[in-house]
Design goal:
The chain is mainly beta. It is built from one helix and six strands.
Length: 109
């Protein structure tokens, strides 16, 4: 079985580090990933915006080295996450969990 996602895109905002119980570090980045083909209707490249979750060391490094507009490559996996309201599962959706990140270009001063 294989569960692997590879994305290259630009960060849409500055990453912010959060500390959870047990001193775990986490950040969520949003990648703007341009599609490799033009739309038939507008004849322009469309962009997908994909949220990615990073944990521990890679979360800390991303906050240290990247900001809005930085180009990164990620190797990740999909994980099913449930959206629960008042102890009732409303729906499930895939979450992108980053396992490795490559800093391609940085806008960090």
């Amino acid at each position: 079985m294989l569960n692997q996602v590879v994305l290259v895109g630009r960060l849409t905002s500055d990453p912010e580090l959060k500390k959870l119980d047990g001193d775990k570090s986490v950040t969520t980045i949003r990648l703007a990933v341009q599609r490799p083909f033009k739309s038939g209707e507008t004849n322009e490249y469309e962009t997908d915006f994909i949220n990615c979750t990073l944990w521990q060391g890679i979360a800390e490094a991303t906050v240290d080295y990247c900001k809005k507009g930085s180009i990164v490559g990620v190797k990740a996996r999909l994980q099913q996450k449930d959206y629960i309201v008042e102890n009732k599962k409303i729906f499930s959706y895939p979450e992108v969990i980053v396992e490795k990140i490559s800093f391609i270009s940085s806008n960090k001063d």
